[in-house]
Specification:
103 residues, 4-stranded antiparallel beta sheet, 2 helices, single chain, alpha+beta, binds zinc ion, globular
Length: 103
C-alpha cells in the first residue's frame, strides 16, 4: 500500500512490486516480477498510476512491507501497522507533506 493511503485493499488494484515482464517466456529468461505474494501489493487506482507513471519507487523487502522513495528522495515504510517516515536526513518532513502523496 501507498504511504498514508487508507483506500481499502479489497477495492484496490493488485500491483506487481517488481513489474511482471510479459516478454521473458519467449526469450527463455527468468521472470523478474513473478506473481507471488511477496511481489504483490494492493494499490488504489490513483496511487497505482502514480507508481506506474510517476517517479515513486517501491521495494518489498519482506511480504507485506513496502519501502517507498518519493520523487524528492524521501523514504517511507508502509507495513500493516501504518506508515513510518524512514528518512535519514535530520530535516525530513513527516509522511504526507508532499502534495502528491495524499488523496
Ligand atoms: Zn491510494
Amino acid at each position: 500500500m501507498f504511504p498514508r493511503c487508507s483506500h481499502p485493499a479489497s477495492r484496490s488494484d493488485i500491483d506487481h512490486t517488481i513489474p511482471f515482464d510479459h516478454t521473458v517466456a519467449a526469450d527463455g529468461r527468468p521472470q523478474p516480477g513473478p506473481t507471488i505474494t511477496s511481489n504483490l501489493g494492493a494499490l488504489c487506482r490513483r496511487h497505482h498510476r502514480l507508481k506506474t507513471h510517476g517517479r515513486w519507487c517501491v521495494t518489498q523487502p519482506t511480504s507485506g512491507v513496502f519501502e517507498w522513495t518519493s520523487p524528492h528522495g524521501h523514504t517511507y515504510r508502509r507495513d500493516p501497522t501504518g506508515t513510518t517516515c524512514t528518512d535519514t536526513a535530520p530535516d525530513a518532513p513527516p509522511p504526507g507533506i508532499e502534495s502528491n502523496s495524499r488523496h
